[in-house]
What does this fold into?
Amino acid sequence: MSSHSICRLLFHRARRGRRAGRRGFTLLERMAVMAIITVLIAMLLPAIQQAREAARRFQCKNNLMQMGLALCNYESAHGCLPSGSIDVNRPIQNTLQGYHFGWIVQILPQLEQGNLFASADFSAGVHDKKNVGIVGARLKVFICPSYWAMGACYAACHHDVEAPIDIDNHGVMFLNSSIRHDDLIDGASNTIYVGEISETGMFWASGTRDTLRNTGTPINSAVIQPGSQAAFVMNLKLLEVGGFGSIHVGGANFVFGDGSVRFLSENLSMRVFRQLGSRADGDLVGSF
It folds into this structure.
């Protein structure tokens, strides 16, 4: 037998030996591996969820920054902030009747939505069938990524207490208002322009409680989880407005008159919160 044949024979015998020595995983080993994988997933999942929520909160702040910039540009172009709601009747009732064009429609050109703005028929009310196209539009800048709603997830501040939307409110956008930067006696950095709302309405174009809220109610006092039908069927009276809130844990985001976006805690003092909702109460605002 040649040396080459002997080498081949030894090689095949060695390979058969290795095969014979192999064995599969035992049931105990498999269970141990599965347990380790389960523990690792349990440890990583909260971190992944926190990272996703942090990204959503960042996008939410970015939305508010865009709205703050749009409001600043609107004021530069028109000499004042947009009216929170436009109507000849007062106060505003939360119904599907009335002219009710809201502040969001008015800043569409500043949000690079000129075509959508041009499609609005201002000869008819916002709820009229002539404006079905604009009311049915969905724009990402008005929707917090943590809460994919039908309407807007943001509302302008109309007042510092719970009261109907009217011409004598203390906020920055209310019925037929035309507030200028000089009217912010308390300072732009101490005046809320827009904040998050958790129980949104159906009509982002309407100047009702769908897009206007006040600081007379604690933050997150009426938080409703996304997907809940109660978010669209709130048992409120015609003149009730409500406050701010968000799906984010612990508080909500707000954009102020100076363009800054801040996360306000739901434990914020109501005295301070009401001061932030008034443009000219003259009181010194504490830390927040």
Summary: The first strand starts at residue 85 and ends at 86. The beta strands are 85-86, 101-102, 154-159, 192-196, 212-214, 251-256, 261-265. Residues 187 and 213 are 20 Å apart (CA to CA).
